[in-house]
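look at this:
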Amino acid sequence: MGSRDRKKTREDIFNYFRIGRNYPDKSISERVAIGSFICNNTRSAELDYIISNHSPFQPEEIQQSLQVKLEHIKTELPLFDIEKVFPFANHISPAINKEMFLNSFLVQPKLWIRVRRNFKDEVLAELGEKQISYENTVDSPLTFSFRNGTPVHELKSYLKGAFEIQDLNSQKCAEKVPVLPNQYWWDACSGSGGKSLAVLDKEPSLSLTVSDLRESTLQNLKLRLKKTGQKLARTLVLDLNSAEPGLPGMFDGIIADVPCSGSGTWARSPELLSSFSEQSLFDKFVPLQRNIIRNLTAALKPQSSLVYITCSVFREENEENIAYFEKNLGLKSISATYLEGSDKGADSMFIAVLQMQE
């Protein structure tokens, strides 16, 4: 199977999952056709064939707006329910635009990059040379978006570290981290380090420790650092769920992008909707998040900052956790907000800045 066929197969699978729990009794071909009709607005020979042969719709109708198509579906297939696309809507925070969020599952999110300072001209020149279409967001002159699947990872400027592939709201989270020159910070659940790299770009004088449970992700971060030439104070493999890290009062701030349901990213990975267990929210994620933050507090200096981040839209993982931290862990919320990506083709995230009290 060639790369074009693999890409088309991935799109078909995503379209199958994007309609969620609607029409469970229909065949795979019918579900793919319905999802393809809703989630695409550009015709192709493949889409024309599957829509003509496996759905009640006409190929020319694919170019209509999402709202028009949803109304059309209610006529032809009256059992369609947008809340069956996302069956956990009762957990969505009231701060989220619920209708916009649910509709976002029927649109493929964009691919986002963060261009590093002083490399913008070089990156744009290569995009022009390769005739790759892009959009520049009003949010930042160094943030660009592309059609999902655009092979930006193959560009020479990417391979030399001129830009990072990073979602729009992940970039915004890094911008909100209140670092000051020459401070000591810890990215405690760093993963492969997208926010670490962004924070170091924001404040190069920062002394940054990073840790993760997985050695493999830290190795990935080290490869990214080799490209960019940035430096870390140290890297640690730590299980922050099991015990305090043994770094008492060392840090001016901690970034805790904690493990979570990931519900704010499921428009990008709709297959996760079918594998998520609602009970895991209460049995796994919330207890894990609270335990990690409890174990991190001992490493904070008095009056220092803890930045709590999730890529979840569930109130249990966000507002309810912040209330728990304030009541039980000596932390005070300074700010808390959702970064909604539904109307931008980006992930939705939550970020709160908390202060350690005396």
